[in-house]
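Hi, here's the filled form for the chain we discussed.

Project: internal
Contact: R.S.
Residues: 346
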Amino acid sequence: MDHAAEAQRTDLMTITRHVLNEQSKHPESRGDFSILLNHIVLGCKFVCSAVNKLFQAGLAKLIGLAGEITNVQGEQQKKLDVLSNQVFVKALVSSGRTCILVSEEDEEATFVEPSKRGRYIVVFDPLDGSSNIDCGVSIGTIFGIYVVKNKDDPTLEDVLQPGKYMLAAGYCMYGSSCTLVLSTGSGVNGFTLDPSLGEFMLTHPDIKIPKKGKIYSVNEGNAKNWDDVTSKYVENCKFPKDGSSPKSLRYIGSMVADVHRTLLYGGIFMYPADKKTPNGKLRLLYEVFPMSYLMEQAGGEAFTGKQRALDLVPKKIHERSPVFLGSSDDVQEIKALYAAAAAAAE
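And the returned structure, exactly as it came back:
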């Protein structure tokens, strides 16, 4: 990058300007979607500020466990989890553009009161990877947006749609910098928060994942519980039989950080089903679907071990699913292994 040239740039593309440019391509648009995204961005800025206070100051009271509170997944919540969830719920409701909200932290879906109701459904994980807060590892917010069929009569069935019907998806990663990655259905763009301006600036336009990568990302601590296909694929990553160089293992344990690296550098991110979690561990609506949507929009693929991830039809809001996502060649390789295993079993 030519840093001198970057410092002199005057044509600044903020996320707001980018969204408005996209809106102008749809003359029928009333701006509701742009308003909704602005409220999501505001929530991300607030959480980023709170996370930075933890990373920089190590405020003991704020990073301690929030009493006896546990979320619907049975995980102990940190105070920042609780705060982030409240911030996003209030920001989304106050936008006046949402009708149903589904958060990882809430057992039931939130139905917005009629006077504040809009046409959008937002599914989100307000603070993914929060167990990493104390050690300074990047964490993030993941979100996906659907359109309701009838805003005057929203039902849970409106939420339980395949990921392929998402209108938009994204994540915001809080770490050494604050990066928001977004797709509204026409490619993927990355924005970095400029603290001096308080604005997300376009820094990664039109992200395309490499067709094949040199990295695989998986929790190898679960290896004893994997199926034969996953074990064989990881073995091939380490000891390729075609004479190529082995892949490098990179696993952070924060989905946002692992997927962000995969998106930029290529390779494959895996959280397979295993004997311990036969239905997978990651949540379908607000983890697997948004990340799979982004990956496909960037030219990659996402697979569950049985089918395209975005084709799955959820049966409940906190349903879990296995996932393999990343560079198309790498995902195709594990697809071929599953197909061969299925053929051999017939």
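Let me know if anything looks off before we file it.
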